[in-house]
């Protein structure tokens, strides 16, 4: 797996750099920031960014972000409020207060009648205005008949393994929950091998996660899992995949709606389907972490405990790395090019363990970029389909081999055929013109 993943990373990095550079060129008229050229990858090894703390990975020179582009998100720096909100990395930003504080949980029952849903392109970071965001590929998220529908279609370009792959999306809450109960009524989209439907609670930093996943290999089985401190850049061989649970449901989850619930408490996690407990995990029975928890004076446990967002998503696990494909089922059926897979959410009910202690004004005083202008902002990499792990920010078995988003006209693979075609067209036009002139001159002189 590891070599495959390396190849995937090199490819992803190269695309990200290509993308970032072209973004750079197209926005430099407006952007007063980041005019230094981005490093060009010399050898693949040099292009692999080291995901260290204190290094905003793809920013020229690395380190923490500069004052004029203070917020670090997904390895890029910008003063766009989107960069300073959800996912903003305080330690890699200009100042820790460059990032808006995490908006804390509030109880909601969302029946998707008129959800306050922003796309990743328009979200301004304000959790008082929006409850949910689409993290990438906003086109595949719609609200219809009071259902949230997240669909996956065949991507325009093959993945880093050279195989056709679906491109889905992820919808996340704008607020972070630390313990609580989340119940959602869902119809999965996992009616082909490879299609993964996910309902999870996750943060990128420090990388805790609790999940429900249904994979197309067997849509009658609910998979449950939890992870402790597995940030997006963690090498897969260091990730503990040993907490998976599987529960046969004797019903096809892709045919009907069912209630899925995660009850996440300081001392235990319960997973329920249609109000029946299918799994429990006690904190005191999880593995030990190193060190002592100063709050309790006891040994730390490898138990998810940090504030996290609730996410729904669908992604293609059948066409990427071998491990993921085996787990999700393979190959994903893309025999019909207009095939669509769709996860639907009828409602989500969130009951916070710590409700109502969030910041009351927005933007919160003293946080965010020191100067906020009206844009347009320099937003490198933000709308990449960074399908890291379970498509976007969902986390799962191995990386899914999803690549960065590159518009077709920037796709290096299309440059050569496009160039050849243009060359051919010139030759044809030229030849016609020469023939026409010869004829003309013959007429004149004969
Ligand atoms: C863990 O805690 C639960 C109740 O909170 C208890 O029933 C169980 O016996 C405990 N397990 C261990 C190994 O102490
Ligand atoms: C919310 O309150 C709980 C309990 O008092 C506390 O542990 C937590 O840190 C608070 N969160 C925020 C964001 O204030």
How would you describe this structure in keywords?
446 residues; alpha+beta; Jelly Rolls; 3 domains; nine-stranded antiparallel beta sheet; eight-stranded mixed beta sheet; 21 strands; disordered N terminus; binds 2-acetamido-2-deoxy-beta-D-glucopyranose; membrane; transmembrane
Model description:
There is one protein chain. The protein has 446 residues and is of the alpha+beta class. It has three domains: 2-99, no CATH class; 108-352, Jelly Rolls (Sandwich), CATH 2.60.120.200; 407-437. 17% of the residues lie in helices and 27% in strands. It has helices at 2-27, 44-47, 81-84, 322-328, 412-445; strands spanning 71-73, 76-78, 108-110, 117-119, 132-134, 141-144, 147-154, 166-167, 169-173, 180-187, 195-202, 209-215, 221-227, 245-248, 258-264, 268-273, 276-282, 288-293, 298-301, 309-316, 340-352. The strands form four sheets. Strands 3, 6, 7, 8, 10, 15, 16, 17 and 21 form a nine-stranded antiparallel sheet that branches. The chain has an eight-stranded mixed sheet with strand order 4-5-9-20-11-12-13-14, with no helix packed on it. Strands 1-2 form a two-stranded antiparallel ribbon. One 2-acetamido-2-deoxy-beta-D-glucopyranose (NAG) binds at residues 267, 282, 284-285. One 2-acetamido-2-deoxy-beta-D-glucopyranose binds at residues 104, 354, 357. Residues 1-20 form the signal peptide. InterPro entries: Beta-glucanase-like, ConA-like_dom_sf, Glycosyl_Hydrlase_16. Keywords: Glycosidase, Hydrolase, Membrane, Signal, Transmembrane, Transmembrane helix.
